[in-house]
């Protein structure tokens, strides 16, 4: 209760200070659509539900679409419902999947032949829906997504390509996109027979993407070294991007949910998480936030970014709660979350929680070409309440409120 009171004072003060910029100042809790006395997790969730009555609209979509960003936010709603047991959160979650999955379990906007690892992340909350409803269409959809991995193209050392259109490449993002789903599925339906293959994906990332000097991991790696962005000796992309590191941190703490402690690979993944946490702690700004380009805060144009910070806050808090990380990282997570709510969150006159300074998208290659340079990352567009910030924000709030 003390923490909530403290945060309430902080956010009202922040809103007043930022009033000239937003023209919206919260001075009272009366008649607000999102009451400020609620925990941050519910305030963010209610904001999304008010602004986007259909869950598929959260990324400004007008039609249902199977997509990883929706999967991330729906995972946060799953955890929020488990915590609060408020039916509206469950209904919002279920509504997304009922809008995107047909009665026969097919997913019209999902194209398996694209072999896009991103698409598996939207399946993470499906396990919970199937458990709570036993509806066959959810199981069929899970089986469809799992079948992608049987033929998904791989590197010579069996690492999953990020996408068919990005041959020979592994990105940090892809570990979150595919690995928690794969681990959950193989434990639930295959007696864990593919857990070694799940761990292998992390082993490949550690082998090829870790920078020995900083301990950070590069955004991507091209085994062929043919991409213009790839280092001709190592195949790595040229910079560290905080959100990609956030995806990787979340992948580690979430996969560990399904990796039994007595499994030979469990300790290995915990070591990877601790190494990453140590490297990231060194890069945390005094405000508690992290820069868009993680290690270059002193360069003009770099900015303190919301989505990566939220992902780190969640990963560190969960890592401590689960016993994977030393307790000191709870303070790192608290500092990050306080920095978010103090510096990057605005509260509208309706009480809506608006996360600012969130990078909307970033990648490597493609058309127009993305070269992975510092200038590229800091000039990508930003989007308020980008789902890649709101989902981890809810998850972090839940972990920190335990």
UniProtKB/TrEMBL annotation:
UniProt cross-references to InterPro entries, sorted A to Z: 6-hairpin_glycosidase_sf (IPR008928), 6hp_glycosidase-like_sf (IPR012341), Glyco_hydro_88 (IPR010905), PolySaccharide_Degr_Enz (IPR052043)
GO MF entries: unsaturated rhamnogalacturonyl hydrolase activity
SUPFAM superfamilies per record: Six-hairpin glycosidases (SSF48208)
Main EC class the enzyme belongs to: hydrolase
UniProt keyword Hydrolase present: yes
Known EC number: 3.2.1.172
Name of the featured protein: Unsaturated rhamnogalacturonyl hydrolase
Pfam families assigned: Glyco_hydro_88
Alphabetically ordered keywords of this record: Glycosidase, Hydrolase
